[in-house]
Amino acid sequence: MKRLLIVILLLGFSITGMGWGQTGHRVVGKIASKHLTKKARKALSTVMGHESLAVASTWMDEVKSDSTYDYMEDWHWVTIPDGQTYAQAEKNPNGDIIATLERIINELESNRESMSVGQQREYIRILVHLVGDIHQPLHVGTGLDRGGNDVKISWFWSTPTNLHSVWDTRIIQHKEFSYTELAEVVDHTKKSTVEEWQSATIRQWAEESMSYRPMVYEIPQDNVLAYNYVYATWDTVQLRLQQAGIRLAGILNRIYG
Ligand SMILES: [Zn+2]
Prior knowledge:
Layout: H1 2-14, H2 22-34, H3 38-48, H4 53-56, H5 59-62, E1 78-79, H6 97-111, H7 117-134, E2 140-141, E3 152-155, E4 159-162, H8 163-175, H9 179-186, H10 191-198, H11 202-211, H12 213-216, E5 224-225, H13 227-256
Parallel strand pairs: 1-2, 3-5
Antiparallel strand pairs: 3-4
Helix pairs in contact: 2-7, 2-9, 2-13, 3-13, 6-7, 7-13, 8-13
Bound molecules: zinc ion.
């Protein structure tokens, strides 16, 4: 029994930096697809075929099982310590979420005419995923605890997990919505708000994520997170999914619209 427990613990800690779980990522893709211009929708269907943005959103997590894509591993997150900006922070030589988003968007904007459909499809899959991840506050880490992966949590007094995973999946799972239901729940944005959100830069999205740190790390001494934590964070989780979806649509409309 003890050995089994150790194996489970090791497995738990080896899975790091997954980003929003599948439901969260699909919500972002679904919301974005509802805010595309007609022209962008048409151009994207040429690139993506029958693969919806919701389906494309989880590709970057799926290819973690394929060593061909190991070079993308560090693209899901970035470290910006408290009190620093991205420009000041030490850069990961393997890349990070901000550098990757800026590069991919820039290449699609300036160079997509000369890119193959396959290359564009891969870029869109990366884009849908990373715009989601950067809105998950713990994907902009402090550098102290691997984006909350080292913060052990007892979820509802029974499930051992960590703070990162609570934000990726546990809070959303607790609500028991399907991704299409949750997209409906979350997506009710005024036009003026849409414009305001879409005008923010990628670095500002990261700064917003950092601004949630005090709330994210508001953890009781026994490290049990349950109803109170879900209650305290649910509005923020919804807001971040909504902003990610709206901003993804803004980028795709700019590129393809
Ligand atoms: Zn991710």
